[in-house]
Design goal:
Number of strands: 9
Number of helices: 0
Order of helices and strands: EEEEEEEEE
Distance between the termini: 14 Å
Radius of gyration: 14 Å
Structural class: mainly beta
Largest sheet: 5 strands, mixed
Strand order of the largest sheet: 2-9-8-4-5
Strand content: over 45%
Shape: globular
Amino acid sequence: FSYVLAAGLTRDVSEATTVRIPKGTETVELRLLLETEAFSSYDVNLRTDTGAVLERRGLRSRKERTGAVVAVDVAAEKLPPGTYILTLGGQTGPDTTETMDQYTFRVPVR
């Protein structure tokens, strides 16, 4: 299962993009649309209001029909119903990252 997310942090949770994960799904691929491909690799931090869900480092962008994206696979079991904020950063050095965009989405009860 795959879902495309566009950048933009919403102020109201009710405005967050809804990601409906079909029952039986094991892995969700979140494809993050990039406004610019300014970095050779990217970091992703996915969290809820209660804490971090996952972190990935060293991801590469790829070209698709919709433009450049960074894709990250998440186990569906790590995405219970709730609201999530995914932060995308570009790696500027071995241990440094520049925050680029935030993507807000919610997963409804399945």
